[in-house]
Amino acid sequence: MQSKIIAIVNQKGGVGKTTTALNLGYALSQIGKKVLLIDFDPQGSLTVALGYKTDNKPGIQTLMTDAIEERETEEKCILEIKKNLNLIPANLQLAGIEMTLVNVMCKEQILKSVIEPIRRDFDYILIDCSPSLGTLTINALTACDSIIIPVTPEFLSAKGLGDLTSTIKKTKKRINPRIKVEGILITMLNERTNLSKEMLRAVNESAVYIKDKFDLDMKIFNNKIPASVRAGEAIKNRKSIIEYDPKNKVSKAYQCFAKELIAND
Ligand SMILES: Nc1ncnc2c1ncn2[C@@H]1O[C@H](COP(=O)(O)OP(=O)(O)O)[C@@H](O)[C@H]1O
Ligand SMILES: [Mg+2]
Question: Cα(125)–Cα(204) distance, rounded to whole angstroms?
Fold first, then answer.
């Protein structure tokens, strides 16, 4: 199976990383792709959004610890959500692991060593990153083939994208030369306001700036995710919005986005 590992990254919180992991994963599974979602945020938002409790359950923290200590994992860490959609959950212990990693040899490679043996079982593995550029995120950048960067018009800043790009560039140069940026995904877009139009122009300008300064292609996906209160409601109901309100514009946008992403391959 030709599998693809995609990290969903932005060091800003609240830009739609978790919502994108959930709904993109759901949309890909509907098209018949075998999907594994990895919650890689100690907050466990993706785990909770899928209706699971985070406390004391085996998950990515278990797999990371066992990889660090070089032992086989005995617990079952992959949960089947529905046909073609699977989850490795996370809990707060993952934050402790980030501390432990400081003293581990090849600390950037641990997630990669967890994913490599199972990657052939899936078409897409989506990693929902935490809002930081710390060791966990570097692990995700090391394990992945490519990156999606969700950006809200309001949270856009050339500085923010610059810091992220610089981290991607360094990881690409020093650890993982195959990283590709799939693109920037604009989320929570309110198309009626002028502000958003201006912001959109700013995103386009930053993409050009990044190309010039870092020599890294960073296209903006054609499909943009509109803002809708239903997106938040769906998460509160522990469902993908595609299941909760299939006709909603956000549902349609994520389904179109899944197709655009597949066409990227
Ligand atoms: N398209 C959208 N429209 C409206 N609200 C959204 C949309 N996408 C996400 N949200 C809300 O924005 C908040 C942050 O989204 P989230 O996916 O958790 O971001 P992150 O993982 O980057 O912190 C959540 O409350 C979520 O419900
Ligand atoms: Mg999140």
Answer: 28
Report pLDDT digits (tens) over 123-133: 999 999 999 99
* Centre of ligand 2 from the C-alpha of residue 99, in Å: 20
Minimum CA distance residue for ligand 1 atom 8 = 16
| Span 156-181, average pLDDT | 86
Domains and CATH numbers, the chain: 4-264 (3.40.50.300)
8, 10, 12, 19: residue to mutate for ligand 1 pocket, most atoms within 8 A of CB = 19
| Nearest Cα residue to atom 16 of ligand 1 | 16
Read off the pLDDT of residues 231-263 as tens digits, 9 standing for 90 and up: 999 999 999 999 999 999 999 999 999 999 999
CA distances from 257 to 68, 215, 229, 262 (A): 36, 25, 19, 9
**What span, in angstroms and rounded, lies between the C-alpha atoms of 187 and 210?**
20
- By DSSP bridging, strand 85-88 and strand 79-82 are antiparallel
Residue 191 φ/ψ, nearest 5 degrees: -70, -20
| Contact residues of ligand 1, CB 6 A cut-off | 13-19, 45, 131, 187-188, 225, 227-228, 231-232, 235, 250
Averaged pLDDT, 36-58: 94
- Check residues 48 and 154 and name the one with the higher pLDDT: 48
How does the average pLDDT of the chain come out, rounded? 92
pLDDT of 158 higher than 70 = no
Q: How many Å lie between the centroid of ligand 2 and the Cα of residue 131?
A: 7
